[in-house]
Amino acid sequence: MNECKVIWRSVLSQLEVMISTISYDLWFKDLKPYTIEGDTLILVAPLNSFKKVSVQYADQIEAAIKASGSKITGIEIITEDEKDSFAVADASDEKSLTEEETVSVFNPDYTFDSFVVGDSNEIAFAAAKSVAEHPGSNHNPLFIYGGVGLGKTHIMHAIANYIFEHNKNARILYVTAEQFVNDYIDSIKNNKDNDLNRQFRMKYRSVDVLMMDDVQFLSGKTSTQEALFHTFNDLYQFRKQIILTSDRHPRELASLEDRLKSRFQSGLTVDITKPSIETRIAILQKKAYMKKYDISQKAIFFIAENITSNIRELEGALNKVVYFCSLSGRSTEDLDAVKEALKDDIDISTHVLSMDSITDAVCAYYGVKKADIVGKRKNKLISNARQMAIYLINDMIGVPLLTIGQFFGGRDHTTIMYARDKITDASKTDNLIKAQINDIRSMLEKK
Ligand code: ADP
Ligand code: MG
Fold first, then answer.
1. Which residues partner with 213 through β-bridges?
2. What CA–CA distances, in Å, run from 197 to 24, 220, 230?
3. Does the chain have fewer CB atoms within 10 Å around its N or its C terminus?
């Protein structure tokens, strides 16, 4: 696949989270990568009016290019008739389109290395790894299911990248179920003679690995399901690996033929669930590192505490914060800036309990500085306040000890456990401590 497409795809995935869906659909979706001139990616637009996009969205485009880590530094938008004045970087580009039909291109960023493993996905990860190491033998098919934005597509591409790295001749086809449906419909439309489906068959049955993303899309599409059933049997019989993803367990796929449901479940079925706070922090740290973002630990904690729905949104929030702070010249240490950047994503009118807000309340209550309690100082008042904050964080929002330790300047979890247990014990016998706990709780609850 040609480089322009890979670059543009990764820039687009950054842009998608930086601008509104309406603007994205209107202005960016229809731009087609054409070639690279020096450091500039040349895009072809359907109309002249699209040219203003590069000015109007200059900041966002710049930030997206940076975030994607690609080698280009800018874009230029041209129209169809201006194409002639640009040389096509790779003369085989046009021809390779047909090849592209049978062998897919995978997102180079979606690898096993860049995938953070936690409770929510460790089984899926292990299964994927095993399939990648021994395609067609261990778990066939592999069926991965889970909610949107939790890493299904990432893990599928990771398998493909891994297989491809170890076997350059592997024919790996990745399609969304939607593409499969469209291909099937086209194959019927275009072939009116006995040749019916020949092309379609060639495409789907000549592969070593078939990956089909989001199979829930097949619901209710009876004749496509039939085609998939035969494709499946054919591949399976020749020990070709099949990998499927869906937003739900196969048995919950409505309007899917029973025989397909049972095929889908005949190998290994694994799920991916929502990540815990520790995994969310680890993911943010990894993404920030990969994108060379300069972002404070504080901002990372805040994002991880407040964006809990899925990883795509977590990543979007990270981009927004970095982008907002760099544009407005504010530091990511400044939580007000972070909150402002995320004002559309989290409800800041209702007070959120977080490690920060609880620590702030404790500091206000004892009259100590936050820098002191997250730092190394050891006087009695500060140690007491620190232990209280640790106890309340663990008790009120259930943050694991390891994560609390990170928040309190990298203390290890036994220190944190000691602090928590000390206050827990004291709260049973010491009336003063009991009263303090109640006071701070009510401060926090009133906000
Ligand atoms: P899905 O296909 O389940 O909707 P994606 O695979 O598209 O989700 O993931 C959404 C985004 O979240 C992608 O950018 C992906 O790289 C990222 N992501 C998901 N899970 C992880 C993980 N465990 N570690 C790192 N990044 C992840
Ligand atoms: Mg997906």
1. 176
2. 36, 21, 12
3. C
Our mutation pick for probing the ligand 1 site, out of 312, 314, 318, counting the most ligand atoms within 8 A of Cβ, is 312
Distance 283 CA to ligand 1 centre (A): 10
- State which ligand 1 atom lies nearest to the alpha carbon of 314: 12
For 174, 288, 301, 302, 317, the CA distances from 106, given in Å and listed in that order, are: 8, 22, 31, 32, 25
Which of 15, 154, 319 has the most ligand 1 atoms within 8 A of CB, as the residue to mutate?
154
Kindly list the averaged pLDDT for each block of 10 residues, start to end, along the chain of length 447: 78 82 84 89 90 88 85 90 72 40 73 96 97 94 96 96 91 93 85 64 89 95 93 93 97 93 96 94 95 93 91 93 93 93 75 85 91 90 95 92 93 94 94 92 78
pLDDT in tens, 148-203: 999 999 999 999 999 999 998 899 999 999 999 998 988 887 656 556 567 788 88
**Which of helix, strand or coil describes residue 150?**
coil
Tokens (6 digits) for 117: 């493993």
What residues sit around ligand 2, an ion, with C-beta below 5 angstroms?
A: 152-153
Q: Give me the domains of the chain, ranges plus CATH numbers.
A: 3-89 (3.30.300.180), 122-272 (3.40.50.300), 277-341 (1.10.8.60), 355-446 (1.10.1750.10)
Task: Say which amino acid occupies 37.
Answer: E
Write the pLDDT tens digit of every residue in 209-233: 999 999 999 999 999 999 999 999 9
